[in-house]
Design goal:
Residues 1-37 form the signal peptide. Residues 481-495 have a biased composition (Basic and acidic residues). It comes from Menidia menidia (Atlantic silverside). This is (Atlantic silverside) hypothetical protein. By secondary structure, this protein is an alpha+beta fold. The chain has 3 domains: 1-134 and 146-155, Immunoglobulins (Immunoglobulin-like); 170-296 and 437-476, no CATH class; 320-434, no CATH class. 22% of the residues lie in helices and 18% in strands. It is built from 10 helices and 20 strands. The protein has helices at residues 164-170, 178-184, 192-203, 231-244, 288-295, 332-343, 362-365, 406-415, 417-434, 437-454, and strands spanning 4-9, 46-48, 61-66, 84-90, 99-100, 105-106, 111-118, 126-132, 190-191, 209-215, 218-224, 250-255, 272-273, 276-277, 283-284, 323-328, 348-354, 382-383, 455-456, 466-468. A 6-stranded mixed β-sheet has the order 15-13-12-10-11-20, sandwiched between helices. Strands 2, 3, 5, 6 and 7 form a 5-stranded antiparallel β-sheet that branches. The protein has a 3-stranded antiparallel β-sheet with strand order 1-8-4, with no helix packed on it. Bound molecules: 2-acetamido-2-deoxy-beta-D-glucopyranose (4 copies). The site of one 2-acetamido-2-deoxy-beta-D-glucopyranose has 3 residues, from loops.
Length: 495
């Protein structure tokens, strides 16, 4: 028995407002040897995700495949990493679109993550075939498939959706982001005139600020200070966003340094930063690592937020039941952690990977080699944009900052395996949900919208701001069928 699920990414022009994407599923039976592990029932496999829809444009499109057995139950362990094969091709065989289609990533829990990257736009639409067992040809001439029309745009296509609220619904943005609401509470009004003066006066010597204006959906900027190389990350995100959706006219400052800046409560200015803290008023954006890894997924970046879903290590039952920590010596508690680890190696494996702040202690504690893994240790007043969605006890096991209850918590986790497993699962689910690529784009747009609604004064391209151009190479070529934003007259600049 083999399962062939074929999905066609297409638009039916007549009913496009109701259902712009038609899912076509074909089953073809053939006698094939049974697959690895528990038998997968071909007809019952479930396929879902934004990559099966034409409209949500993200650098790497993706969807999920859930393996299901003959009783209709979801498999909870992997049926083997080669269980499914996926073929993606333009519906119109005359259309040449380069599509990078790596094999599905086994998430180890009975589900698979399928990613693909388009290096061109498809006017006609795409055919997506999910094959279980041996590949078989999908009948493209099938009369059941109605009328196809694309277009399916790729990442570099400069083709913004003019209606931001429509874009938000396509991307399934949450209506509100609690962190954005909280961050803007201090800023009912953003007086641009005052902002320009105050930021220059108070922060221009900090060296890590970039002054942006987005006017007519074009990005302009100037840098303030020497340490602004990381503007490449804010540039690439803003360019990627403006290729997808029309952004309101805004003028703002991004702090590309490591730490938030605004410590005032009275007379605070809204600065966008990649890191927030309970002691500052900066408006937090997804970190540049999260942003960059999303943009560069499948282009050589290791540990991007999609591929880590497949690298979850051994199944729960086989995991080492010890707490694990690696990190730099940035806080004294971390040294204590390494110390505790020596006393209780059966409970804790903690090591310091780099010594910068407490070098005199290195001899005593020693140095551990670096390991690649996803750090989720919540130990300070600093936070990222999605931490607000994580609840102590539900998504992670909270530990006191002075570590006085650490061993107790680890022993608890060892003695309550089922509960600990549920916390790990919930934490993983929350991270997968919050860090999925469409969410990051939503977050950026929502910050810029909230900001623009509060702006007083006209966002302006200043004379020393340079345009940040969209890529102008072969990869950017596309035929955009959407309404173009009106061109801004060039002479409407002011100081
Ligand atoms: C099986 O998995 C799919 C996809 O995650 C989910 O929508 C469905 O509710 C699950 N079914 C059961 C019976 O748990
Ligand atoms: C998990 O442990 C079991 C029993 O020790 C072993 O048979 C199995 O191969 C292990 N699985 C993995 C993925 O390490
Ligand atoms: C490590 O723990 C021992 C025993 O509790 C203590 O005497 C020592 O000062 C600790 N060292 C550090 C570096 O914290
Ligand atoms: C650790 O912090 C808690 C409060 O969070 C306090 O009650 C406790 O006394 C502290 N322990 C040590 C050893 O400082």
């Amino acid at each position: 028995m083999s399962c062939i699920r074929s999905l066609v990414l297409l638009q039916t022009s007549t009913r496009s407002l109701i259902r712009r994407f038609v899912l076509f599923v074909a089953f073809i039976s053939a006698s094939l040897p049974a697959c690895v592990g528990e038998a997968v029932s071909p007809q019952r496999c479930v396929v879902w995700g934004p990559g099966l829809d034409r409209d949500p444009v993200v650098p790497v499109r993706y969807f999920y495949i859930q393996a299901v057995n003959s009783k209709g139950e979801n498999l909870t362990v992997s049926p083997g990493k080669d269980t499914f094969k996926v073929k993606i091709s333009p519906l119109d065989k005359k259309e040449h679109v380069r599509i990078h289609v790596p094999p599905p990533l086994d998430r180890g829990d009975g589900s698979f993550l399928m990613r693909y990257r388009l290096y061109g736009s498809s006017q006609a639409g795409l055919s997506v075939q999910v094959l279980h067992g041996d590949a078989a040809r999908f009948p493209l001439s099938d009369p059941m498939i109605p009328h196809f029309s694309g277009p399916v745009y790729h990442e570099y296509c400069d083709c913004p959706e003019p209606d931001a609220s429509r874009w938000r619904s396509v991307m399934q943005c949450p209506p509100q982001e609690p962190q954005i609401q909280a961050d803007f509470e201090s800023f009912p009004v953003v007086d641009l005139q005052l902002l320009r003066q105050e930021v220059l006066r108070r922060f221009s010597n900090r060296g890590g600020l970039v002054h942006y204006a987005i006017i007519g959906n074009r990005v302009f900027r100037r840098t303030l200070g020497k340490y602004t190389d990381f503007k490449m990350f804010s540039d690439e995100m803003l360019l990627s966003l403006t290729r997808k959706v029309r952004v309101p006219d805004v003028e703002f400052f991004i702090n590309v340094g490591d730490w938030p800046l605004e410590t005032r409560t009275e007379g605070a200015v809204p600065i966008l930063s990649w890191c927030g803290s309970t002691d500052t008023r900066d408006i937090v954006l997804p970190t540049y690592e999260v942003t960059h890894s999303t943009l560069e997924t499948l282009r050589g970046v290791t540990n991007d937020l999609l591929s880590v879903q497949g690298n979850t290590g051994p199944p729960w039952a086989n995991k080492t039941d010890r707490a694990f920590f690696r990190g730099r010596d940035s806080r004294e508690e971390r040294l204590q952690l390494a110390n505790l680890s020596k006393e209780h190696p059966e409970l804790l494996d903690a090591g310091i990977t780099g010594w910068f702040f407490f070098r005199d202690r290195e001899k005593l504690v020693g140095k551990a080699p670096l390991v690649g893994f996803f750090d989720f240790f919540k130990d300070s007043q600093y936070y990222e944009h999605f931490y607000v969605h994580l609840k102590a006890g539900a998504h992670y096991v909270p530990v006191r900052r002075n570590l006085s209850d650490l061993l107790e918590k680890i022993r608890w986790a060892k003695d309550h395996d089922a509960e600990a497993r549920e916390v790990a699962r919930a934490g993983q689910r929350a991270a997968r949900e919050q860090l999925q690529p469409p969410r990051l784009y939503c977050y950026y747009l929502q910050v810029l919208q909230a900001y623009s609604q509060r702006q007083a004064g006209r966002p302006t391209r200043h004379p020393d701001m340079e345009p940040v151009p969209q890529p102008d190479d072969q990869a950017a070529a596309c035929t955009c069928g959407r309404e173009r934003p009106p061109k801004e007259p060039e002479d409407r600049e002011e100081l």
